[in-house]
Design brief:
By secondary structure, the chain is α/β, with parallel strands linked by helices. It has 2 domains: 182 residues, Vaccinia Virus protein VP39 (Rossmann fold, 3-Layer(aba) Sandwich); 82 residues, DNA polymerase, domain 1 (Orthogonal Bundle). 40% of the residues lie in helices and 14% in strands. It contains 12 helices and 7 strands. A 7-stranded mixed sheet has the order 3-2-1-4-5-7-6, with helices on both faces. The longest helix has 16 residues. About 4% of the residues have low confidence.
Length: 298
């Protein structure tokens, strides 16, 4: 099963500042690239737990006594670490977004390139698919989804057309959805805008923003003092949440100050924003929008 090169591999694992006997978590296992690199830096007493809700990822499980793969969404980070009697860890790595494998398997419905049933579930156990979103959401919900998750100015037009067309017949495939939307897209930017639309639907199907928030709120509780957080985001919504949480422990607004004007925050950034260099982007096109942020628990 083909999973492409992990993005910012050295930089993200360097960010964990790995101790040979430490306990680490890779919350987005995928093809196992980041996990293999972490394991290569651990001693025999080290331990790595990995999460992936996608059953396809189980085929990549690493045969190593120091490694445990948990087939669950990382929104349940604390719960499943407790199940393994782990209360605190030395570092957490996350590489968000969709794996190359998920994009390249036509029937998963993530890509605009293939004809496939509308699905886009990262976990095959998920109850909400792209079909339900497109065929059952109210026009107002569709409009809001395209505004918030794809930043599309013509969101009202797209939402209205989807509602109009599904009254004629259900919209069951990516090809049918593309045909409905194409007349409303700029020809020279058609592929880019379709990708934004698919991104918006995928974020909604998988509750990606809610999941990220739930995960981030747990990280200060799970990390040991001095433990590291190394997170790679691919779109501005995710990166903004990560950046704000590292800076203030909040997703919006400013933290309260004490009598002396000091603020109490759980994390501190270790270095500035890290992005792939031109060579990595040339080798791996998926890296072009990646942003890495590293923080430590105070």
């Amino acid at each position: 099963m083909e999973y492409h090169n992990p993005v910012l591999l050295k930089e993200s694992v360097d960010g964990l500042n790995i101790k040979p006997d430490g306990i680490y978590v890779d919350v987005t296992f995928g093809g196992g690239g980041h996990s293999k690199e972490i394991l290569s830096r651990l001693g025999e007493d080290g331990k790595l737990y990995a999460f992936d809700q996608d059953e396809d990822a189980l085929a990549n499980a690493i045969d190593d006594s120091r490694f445990t793969l948990i087939n669950e969404n990382f929104r349940f980070l604390k719960r499943f670490l407790r199940f393994y009697n782990v209360k605190e860890v030395d570092g957490i790595l996350g590489d968000f977004g969709v794996s190359s494998h998920q994009f390249n398997v036509a029937e998963r419905g993530f890509s605009t390139r293939f004809e496939a049933k509308l699905d886009m579930r990262m976990s095959q156990k998920g109850s909400l698919s792209a079909y339900e979103v497109i065929n059952e959401y109210e026009e107002k919900q569709l409009r809001q989804m395209f505004y918030e998750y794809a930043d599309l100015r013509n969101a009202p037009t797209l939402a209205a057309e989807i509602v109009k067309q599904r009254q004629v017949a259900p919209i069951e495939s990516s090809e049918k959805l593309n045909d409905i939307l194409r007349p409303f897209l700029f020809k020279e930017k058609e592929h880019k805008i379709l990708a934004q639309i698919y991104q918006a639907i995928r974020i909604e199907v998988n509750q990606e923003i809610e999941v990220l928030k739930e995960f981030l709120l747990q990280t200060p509780e799970v990390l040991k003092k001095g433990g590291r957080l190394s997170l790679i985001s691919y779109h501005s919504l995710e990166d903004r949440l990560v950046k704000r949480f590292i800076r203030s422990g909040l997703f919006e607004g400013e933290p309260e100050k004490d009598f002396y004007g000091n603020i109490s925050v759980p994390l501190k950034k270790v270095k500035g924003l890290i992005v792939p260099d031109a060579e990595e982007i040339r080798r791996n096109n998926r890296a072009r929008s990646a942003k890495l942020r590293i923080a430590t628990k105070l």
